[in-house]
Amino acid sequence: MAELKCQYNNPDNISRESLNIYWQKNEEVVYALVSGKEAMQFVHKNYVNNTKVLLSNYDLRMYNISLKQSGEYECIVPALKEFRNKNVHKSKFHLNVLANFSVPEISSESSLVELERRSTVSLKCSSGHGFPKPQRMFWQLTDGNGTKEPRYPHYNVENIGETFNISISWTLTVEEDINVTCGLEAHHKAVSPVLQLKLKKPPVPPESDLKMTITIMISVVVLVLVSSLSIILICKQSRSTVPIAIRIPLI
Predict the structure, then answer these.
(1) Which one in 69, 120, 143, 251 has a CA-CA gap of 20 to 30 Å to 19?
(2) Per-chain mean pLDDT for the chain
(3) Looking at per-residue confidence, does 228 or 238 come out higher?
């Protein structure tokens, strides 16, 4: 819904039964109030049952708005017998109709499951059915070093009928687990859901192999400790042995 301001406060105190008010766009009558009553027979077919005037201030409410209805509207209170030479009131209102873009969506022709290290992945992000023309689209990458925005990807904008579509592509090499999002800047902002790119985890050894590995490691540690203690004891014993001097009498 949109509300267009007439800015007419009836300074001449014209009675409602005598009041005529027309809202129009170019040559199309959007709403007509004749002698204080709605006169839908004068209204253009594009606006029938889609407009209403607030009798408190004669502002126009429009419903079921489309992009085609953007433009300049006029609120006109035409001359009465006592105001033959001019309109009682005339004001203009410019209506800008916007269409929000869809939530950006990331797609890929590459398999994103169990990626090998240094895998090459091609991504595309797209959003559409928005108006007016968007400002830009961009990627954001989050890894162990934080979040950054690659500078080089170029986005493509297409005019489809009354609205615009926008897309962006990116080919990257995956070195570690990362999160990727795609952002849109237009008359509103939007961000895609997070895409997680995870590397394939190394295979986990069977439980029996794991127990054997632990047993061997413990045995090696024990063997090293025993060997070390044995060497220390031998060294201590060799240091504590004192040679005995024997005297042989001379004849």
Answers:
(1) 69
(2) 86
(3) 228
